[in-house]
Amino acid sequence: MSESKPLLIIVDDNEDILFNLKLMLEENNYEVEIANSGKKAIELLSSIKKVPDLIISDIMMPEMNGYDFFSSLSSHPQWNHIPFLFLTAKSTPEDIRLGKMLGVDDYITKPFRKEDLLASISGKITRNMKSNLIDKEIKQLLLSLNFKIGPSIFDKEHPNLCLLLVYWDDVAGPILKKSYPSDKDCTISINTIGKQLFNAATSIYGHDKITKAEGILLNIENIKKQGYVYFDSLPDKNERFGEKQYMLSVIAPFLNYFNSLKIKQVLKEISEKIKYNQEWEIKRYWEIISKILTTRSYLIKPQKDILRINP
């Protein structure tokens, strides 16, 4: 397989669609691998050395449908960062809402326009490259910090989880404003990591666009953790950029797309309170996120393609 071309995996049980998509994408300078079911796609992913740049999957397939395939990828630490598109004939509003609720990067219905598919693929790969650049920079920044991972400070029913709020200061740079647990009680230096996360993100996006970026799911290999960061701002004429920029972040041993969707909603709620200068208790939100990470929320019934969500 070529190292220079982006690698795409197409999953569909229709051989004609597989052939035509493969041909069209190869003509547009992509490298393409194909599989006719989610189960075959997982076997393919396990056998190739290069992590794909994007996966395109149908939903209605034998052996393992698209929902279960995406769920399996979301629980795998090496694959859960791969951009994922549903390309399917399931086009009702309910189907589309379900796909987006699952956390896929895009949902395109058949028949589709070639231009729309190519634009979606290009956009998702570019966004993922930015996320990977941030991830790479964080690794480089943390390499010299000599972190020592201590034992978990939490009981066995809770993950080793940190929630933090970092503000940008024009003079001092990123400043840790709130964290739970406190920096001195956590097994890692969340003060340092919070600053590095903020610096890494601004180095890629720039201050003028950072709060226009969506939340980012990161793999922080140096400390064997994963992070979800969410940027926002509130108007402030005294600041150089005309706004007070801040970052909310969750750091945990493992996060998947399902986790990040729910965590994003929690962080958006916190952000709204920050904007309206309302009080919020960081421990309570830490407990909400902890429950998200310790509760199996999604049960998929493949025989009916129904997703059930436990309260």
What does the model show?
The protein starts with 6 loop residues before the first strand and ends with a strand. The chain has 311 residues and is α/β, with parallel strands linked by helices. The relative contact order is 0.10. The protein folds into 2 domains: 7-136, Response regulator (Rossmann fold, 3-Layer(aba) Sandwich); 148-298, no CATH class. 39% of the residues lie in helices and 23% in strands. The chain has 8 helices and 12 strands. The strands form 3 sheets. Strands 2-1-3-4-5 form a 5-stranded parallel β-sheet, with helices on both faces. Strands 7-6-10-9-8 form a 5-stranded antiparallel β-sheet, with helices on both faces. A two-stranded antiparallel ribbon has the order 11-12. The longest helix has 30 residues, at 114-143. The radius of gyration is 20 Å and the shape is elongated.
Brief overview:
The chain is α/β, with parallel strands linked by helices and 311 residues long.
Topology:
Layout: E1 7-11, H1 15-27, E2 31-35, H2 38-47, E3 54-57, H3 66-74, E4 84-88, H4 93-102, E5 106-109, H5 114-143, E6 162-169, E7 173-180, H6 190-205, E8 216-220, E9 225-235, E10 243-252, H7 257-275, H8 282-294, E11 298-301, E12 306-309
